[in-house]
Amino acid sequence: MKKTALITGASGGIGAEIARCLHRDGYQVLLHYNHSKAKIFALAEELEESVLFQADFEKPEEISRMFGEIESRFGGVDLLINNAGLACYGLITDITLEQWRRLFAVNVEGTYNCCRHAIPYMVHQKSGNIINVSSIWGLCGASCETAYSAAKSAVIGFTKALAKELGPSGINVNCVAPGVIMTDMLNNLSSEALEILREETPIGRLGTPSDIAEVVAFLASKKAGFITGQVISPNGGFVIN
Hints:
This protein is of the alpha/beta class. It has one domain: Rossmann fold (3-Layer(aba) Sandwich), CATH 3.40.50.720. Helices cover 47% and strands 13% of the residues. A 7-stranded parallel β-sheet has the order 3-2-1-4-5-6-7, with helices on both faces. Helix 1 links the parallel strand 1 (4-7) and strand 2 (28-33). Helix 1 (13-24) crosses helix 8 (209-220), helix 3 (60-74) runs parallel beside helix 4 and helix 4 packs parallel to helix 6 (146-166). The chain is globular.
């Protein structure tokens, strides 16, 4: 029987590429989405035997419903990729409390809720793998992205603590913190701004969704069996800690 992998936010550029890599590696891929029906249906058609699950991560009851459906069909998930995320740009004085709470609801509480539902099955199996997607801004912060940076930093702290908590149960927990990646999140940037970012990247180019997906696929593989509690940041040298 194939191992199951749930990819949240699978309709986005990085999520879709992660799904492709895990499908290639033999996983039964479960694709979560919220609004992007056209993209997710196209991806599901591309990836044979993939299964779609819809949930709004601002509503914990929808996450509970999604996992109830997963448990009834598959028992649980062997691999959880917490990739669903939301960004927000602006000066901290212009960010409303509603925007702040929405970012934390999706990026942090969504990750927490998915883990809370996925973990019992993994503990029962005495094996499992959780990979949380953060950002370089969670490592070093970004001007005009304070809320996003704070939320992604919380994901990193959550990952490290959870790895210590779940290690004795045979569950690995790691974090991937992408650099500047060519996805729809960059659509609001001008070509000049993108060129500046490229020039500031020592490797000489911006990242692609595939750059991130292959790191996730490695962490999901047996080759990474002794890696847990780590933050791996594919960013072309843009941030070096």
